[in-house]
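Let us work through a complete example step by step.
Step 1: write down the sequence.
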Amino acid sequence: MQPVQTEKAVNVKPQTVNLKTMEKKRVLIIDDDVRNIFALTATLKAKGYECRSCQSAPEALDLLSADAVVDAVLIDMMMPDMDGYEAIPRIKNIPGRSNMPIIAVTAQAMVGDREKCLRAGATDYIAKPIDVDRLLALLSRI
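Step 2: predict the structure and record it as tokens.
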């Protein structure tokens, strides 16, 4: 018995690997309520994200100004001292942060809130209680 030979050559294309998608995405969570930070951190870490957190906008501005490696920001819009509406433009004004994805998180799901957050400079908006699937979909775009 002789081996069967085929005339067709198998053309195998090497797969390109996108190293950015292999890296863990780094998310900065800015919220004055530690319970929200804890819940978001646990959820995102379980999905492969690295998380850092700040309990105030001024603390976050200091961290982001110090050249911390962050791929995206989740910011609570209603915080004492400095709310998200004031903090987002300040984040965008930090050198190297003008295109940083910022997701506004708010407990107020009122008509016009999304537009107000986007006008402040947020990339997107999500209401509390947070729909985890929607949040993951938003973060998957970074």
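Step 3: interpret the result. The chain is about 35% helix and 15% strand.
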